[in-house]
Structure formats: structure tokens, C-alpha cells
Amino acid sequence: MTTLAPPTTEPNLTEFARTNAVNWLTALVLVVLHVGAVAALFFFTWKAFLVAAVLYWIAIGGGIGMGYHRLHTHRSYRVPRWLEYALAICGTLTLEGGPIFWVATHRLHHQKSDQDGDPHSPRDGAWWSHVGWIILGRRSHNDTRTMAKYAPDLGKQNFYLWLNTYHYLPLLLSIPLLAWLGWSFGGMAGAVSMVLWAVCVRVVLGLHATWLVNSATHMWGGRRFATRDDSRNSWWVALLTFGEGWHNNHHAHPTSARHGLAWYELDLTWLQIRLLQWLHVAKAVRVAHVNQVPVLPAPRQRSAADSL
Predict the structure, then answer these.
(1) Residue range 173-200: average pLDDT?
(2) Which helix (H) or strand (E) holds 181?
(3) Angle in degrees, CA 293, 294, 300, rounded to 5
């Protein structure tokens, strides 16, 4: 499993979220996006809907599933550097933070899943695991220096250092392009429709879909493997996230590029990786099997570093 122990000379990463302070900037952005998503219902066009759907697939299926999660965090496969970088840029379009922040948080989640120190465990409350950990506590999305200590493989590359700090730029730069595209289809109304659907609706749905992996798939669903956490398989979360909902499978075999292990567990992200493998673009692809017994880590003993 690709995990990294937190450095003992730095504050524990979960301290960033374990306070009652509200991240007002993050909260404001989320409110604006949700208001825009509701407003989009009054500016519906099929063109805007289709563009939003394609961008949703690019951002969630490509940026999060193939990129941030299975490639950057777990190194389940290898691709050329240019494609690795491209997937990271796609990941920023979700507004879930830069690659270093996302990878560091997720590796810590695997280290301490549903234990003290898990950044987003439902054992601390369903609301907390879904969105509370994002809007409360220290905002660390742009704290590249600290976060890089938890993802040193990414922290060695200047591209990831820059992208993590300015992760919001690709999305901001996409807005005038989308507005121009909408304008070319339908004037001002088309521009408004395109931005509301391809940005607000898409980002809001993508955020909640990803957050459901943190919350719902640790509360509801089946458990094929007896992991030392509450992870579960959820077919409906898998549909929303292109395969990320087979979470119990993933926690049992975290470095597997395939999460839907049974033939009936649809995993579109795996099919995309498999296509790249067939094209000889993806290499060193790690794949677990449905009957494979997971190698579980030894129970983690609480150390002095946890109290730092």
C-alpha cells in the first residue's frame, strides 16, 4: 500500500481540520457554486448539459479516478509524464484541491482509516465526513510546503508544487472559454447557461459524488473483505464516480488499478486504464482479483507523534 507516515517534526495533518473555525473563503465558494447550480435549472439547454457531462467525465473519471486516486496516490500503474501531468490538470477542474493536497489527505485516510486521525471518518459524524472536514479548521489546499511533506514523491517535482498552489487557475481559465462557447451557440443566454451548467452544476455534482466516497461508502453497502475499517461497496456511488464506489474492494487492495473486482461491478475508470494498457500507454498495471486474500497491515499502535 502506498502510504507515508507523517513527519514527527510537523503538526499532525488532521489538526488542520479538527477545530471549530470556519473556512469562510471555502464556505463562500461552496455557497456560490450551489446557488449557481440551482440557478442553472432556469437556464437549461441541451448543449450546456452535454458539455457539462463531458467535462464531468474528464474531471471525475479522468482527473480523480484515473489521476489523483489510482495514479498519483496509489501508483497502481505508470503512464508517460505528459499524461500524468494532464490527468493532474483534469483533477484540478473538480475544485477538490491540488494534487499534493489530495494525495496527502488520501494517504493519511488509508493509514488511519476510521481511527483517530482519519481526516474524514463517519465515526466523527456523517456530516463531518461528507463536507464538515472541508469547511471547518485550517484551510490547507494551498499550504504546499506542509502538504508536500506527506507526498514527497510529488513534492520533488516543480510542476506539482506549482499546480498545488495555483490549483484553481485551470477552472478559472475555463470560464471565459465556456462563456465564449455558449455565446457562439445562443448569445448572452447561451453564455450564462454554459457557465452555470459546465461549472456550477458540474463542480457541485462532482464534489458531492467524491464526498460520498468518504461518507456513504463507510456507512452503507456490502463488505466482501474483512478490512480493519468500515469501508463498503456501493453500486450507486460507483455509478456516480465511474467506479470509485467499490470502496471495500479498494481498501482491501489499495494498489489495484481495478476496483470493481467482480464481473458485475462496473468500473469505468478501470476500463479506461485497461484501454491505455492495451494501447501500451499504461504500464506496470497492478490488478487484484475477486478471490485474492488481502494482505492487511498490522494494527497500528498509537505513537507519540500522534499527539504532536
Answers:
(1) 97
(2) helix 169-195
(3) 145
In this prediction the pTM is 0.89
* Predicted confidence (pLDDT) per residue in 223-239, tens digit: 999 999 999 999 999 99
Is residue 229 within 8 A of residue 203, CB to CB? The reply is: no
Note whether residue 90 is domain-resident. Answer: yes
Residue numbers of the domain that contains 196: 13-220
Q: Which residues contact 92 (CB under 8 A, 6 or more apart)?
A: 63, 98, 99, 163, 167, 168, 169, 170, 171
CA dist 213 and 252 (Å) reads 15
Instruction: Please report, rounded to a whole number, the percentage of residues in the chain having pLDDT higher than 90.
Output: 82
Q: Does residue 201 belong to any structural domain of this protein?
A: yes
Q: How many other C-beta atoms are found inside a 10 Å radius of the C-beta of residue 22? A: 13
Grid look-up 507526498 returns 151
In a domain, residue 296? The reply is no
Distance, CA of 17 to CA of 135 (rounded, Å): 8
List residues bridging with 115 in a β-sheet. none
Domain count, the chain: 1
